[in-house]
Amino acid sequence: MGAGRWVAILGAGWLWVVAVRAETEAIRSTRVYERSRALHREDPDKPVLAWEFARACFDRCETVPSKPVRVGMAREAVEACRKALVQSPTEAGCHYYLGLNLGILAQAQPLKALGRVREMEDAWQACLLLDPGFDHAGADRSLGMLYDECPPPPLGVGSRSKARFHLERAARTAPGYPANRLLWIEFLAGHDEADEARRELQSLERMLPEARQRFAGERWASAWKDWDSRIESLVKRWDDVPTGESRPTPSR
Description:
Elements: H1 3-42, H2 47-61, H3 67-87, H4 92-108, H5 113-130, H6 134-149, H7 160-173, H8 178-190, H9 194-214, H10 221-238
């Protein structure tokens, strides 16, 4: 059998593995979504069940290609969180997942994005005041991304200084969570601070074995796929480049 034939077979095998993994994640997120929705409907006044349902909606949106379906689930989540917050305004999880699901609606409906972005900012600021450590410093992480990716006022709420503050604080508050460290490294690299970014990457690599044990199992499979890809990209760009020399800036 020729080399080309082997390449074709291996390529097809890899595509099959990727497809199976994607299908498995879609099945898992659908199962969690349906179970969380049923529990929430049984006790709609319980705020923990509201934000757990909103989390399930957000997670499932990442596996569903249909825009109308994503919008429908995000609206379900937003409604659940808003209703719960009327009775329980200090429930940090409801504020947090309200913001995340508003983000899905903002992406899907650009004409309404600015108003939703400001509500997202308010929701994550509220979560930050109530429980800074919720979801591994999720409010700081989300605010940092929001300020980094949005255009500046009056078109948006973007601010490099605010992005730096929140991304660094997320990395310091929950340093064992790979997403926090990666976002901080990518921010540094994207703003001409490559030496510091490389030092942070080396620190991240040292803590990865512990993180793989802590965040293990089916629930974290898709997250590790993303994290590993980003880590590999950073390592390839900076491998064997002495500190102090110029090096390419990783893309976001």
